[in-house]
Amino acid sequence: MNRYPLWKNVIVILVVLVSALYALPNIYDQDPSVEMSPLRGTVMDIPALQAQASEVLQKADIKLKAAGPRNGKLLLRFADPDQQLHAVDALSPVFSEKYTLALTTVPDLPGWLSSMNALPMFLGLDLRGGVHVVIDVDMDAAVTQAVGRYRDDLRDLLRKEKIRGARLSMLPNGVRATFKEVGKRDLAENKASEQFRSLKFDNGEEGGQAWFDALIPPAEMTALKRFALEQNITTLRNRVNQMGVSEPIIQQQGERRIVVQLPGVSDPSKIKEILQATATLEYRLVDTQHSVLDVVDGGPVPPASKLYKERNGKPILLKKRVIVTGNQITDAKSGLDSRSGSPAVFISLDAGGARRMMDMTTENVGQPMAVVFIEKRTVTREKDGKLIKVKVPVEEVISVANILEPFGARFQTTGLDSTEEARDLSLLLRAGALAAPIEIVEERTIGPSLGQDSIDQGFRSVMVGLLVVMIFMALYYRVFGLVADLALLINLLMIVAVLSMLQATLTLPGIAGIVLTVGMAVDANVLIFERIREEIAVGSTPQASIKAGYEKALSTIVDANITTLIAAVVLYSFGTGPIKGFAVTLFIGILSSMFTAIMGSRALINVIYGGRRVKRLSI
Amino acid sequence: MELISNKLNIDFMGRRKIALIVSSLFIIVSLASLLTQGLKFGIDFTGGTLVEVGYAQPVELEGVRSALAEGGFDKAIVQYFGNSQDVLINVPPTDGKDANKLSDEVFRTLKVANQGNEVKLRRAEFVGPQVGEELTEDGGLAMIYALGGILLYVAFRFEYRFAIGSVVALIHDVIITLGVFSLLQIEFDLTVLAAILAVIGYSLNDTIVVFDRIRENFRRVRHGETVEIINVSLNQTLSRTLMTSVTTLLVLIALLFLGGEIIFGFSLALIIGVVVGTYSSIYVAGTTLILLGVNRTDMMPVEKEGADQNAAP
Question: What is the DSSP letter of A19?
Answer without folding.
Answer: H
